[in-house]
Design brief:
There is one protein chain. With about 525 residues, the chain is an alpha+beta fold. The chain is about 55% helix and about 20% strand. Strands 2-1-5-4-3 form a five-stranded antiparallel sheet, with helices on both faces. Strands 7-6-10-9-8 form a five-stranded antiparallel sheet, sandwiched between helices. Helix 12 runs antiparallel to helix 13. The chain starts with a helix and ends with a helix.
Length: about 525
Amino acid sequence: MNDENKTKAQLIEKIKNLAKFPSENPNPVLRVTKTGKILYANEASLPLLAKWGSGINELMPDRWLRLIADAFDTSQVLVEEYRFNGRVFSFVITPVEGTDYVNIYVRDISDSKKKEEELRKYRRHLEDLVNERTAQLTASNEQLHDEINQRKIIEEELRGSTEFCFNLLQNSPNPIIVINPDKSIKFVNHTLENLTGFSSAELIGKNPPYPYWREETVEKTNRGFTESLGGKGAVRVEEYFKKKDGECFWVEVTARPVENNEKLKYYIANFVDITERKQAEKALLESETKFRTVFENAGGAIFIADTETGKVSDCNKLAEKLIGRAREEIIGMYQSELHPENETEKYKAKFASHIQKGHVLDFEGEVQHKDGRRIPVYIIAQVMKIEGKKIIVGFFFDVTERKKMEEELQKMEKLETIGVLAGGIAHDFNNLLTGILGNLSLAELFVKPGDKVYDALTRAKKASQHAGQLTQQLLTIIKKFSWKIRKYFSNKVLQIMAVLYNSACPSISRSKSS
């Protein structure tokens, strides 16, 4: 009795475990009636039901109704593949004997389908390989006799090819050197012999340092040489070597490893004599240095602008000082921004006109200092073409002092005019006094001393004489003042103006030297 109860309990436990299978199954499990009504669906089935727009006690989509009916009619398990969310699923429709429903077990077979497809492709590939190999073997058998007969011809051609390659290397216009894996020289051609002055007998078999290396740079050259040979693929370096006669030369060395069956056979390198290029680069650098020195130390501020954009591309130190801005701040500014804000359009038009005409332009204008001051300048501008690109170079000379001198000169000229006018008046007045004094002297002859009239004439005469003395003093002062103005003008102003014009506007100073 106990064994029977134990067996019964085990069966009940198995039934319970089986009952858990659908709900715990990670794959969709459905139970559907013969008419297509969904009786049960585990949690994993919910995305499918959402896709179909169905639910418990609702019908399956039409395509499944036909399959379920076929399963009942044939009493056989049917398998149908279904694509969902980019995956492939296998639907196993299993009719349950003695019932009017089927169980549908769903399994994701995307990976297995992919593997099956790969397997099919691999099988096709193997078949292609077998067919190809069979064809190759057939062709090889057919060619075997021909190859035996042609071997002697090939060997002869190989000897000719070897000789051709040797001659090609030997007579190459570029110096060529071949280096063994142990860094000893294996081969040099005639061009390298001519370049270095060392014969092949003096070079072949030599290990670093090679005879054409410079003694003072052996350590550096050897380090670069070792790094170059240790790299993969072609390596390009520039070296400064020495000929047998002591003359030094620059070369660009391109080295490449040559391998056979992944084993290094040797390095082959070719030299390109770049001595002239290096000399040209040095000369260019010196020229640029000289230009920059002249540019920075020119007697005026220099601005360089792009004719297309109107933006400043460079300037010197005096340009920074002139407008009170650093070079980094000036570069990128529009040319018109150098001038007063309210005259932008005026300078834009002048800039455009000058670019169009292209000749040298000189005029007076103003620049805007960063602190807001308007500084008078004399400008000489020229359009130039450098490397196919048009630029405009402007020389700006601060003429503030010259303007002040001109103002002082105008004041002096006004004072001199006033002095001339006053001198003329003084001379006329003096002439009048002469007539008055003469008549007073004549009148004294007709009266006696002691008379009241005589005393009056005497006082009038003294007053006229005093007025004459004042007039003479005024003329003396005017003469001295006028002389001082002329002297200052001739000795100082003209000298200063000449210096200003010669430095600031040479084109005008030559044409208006008078």
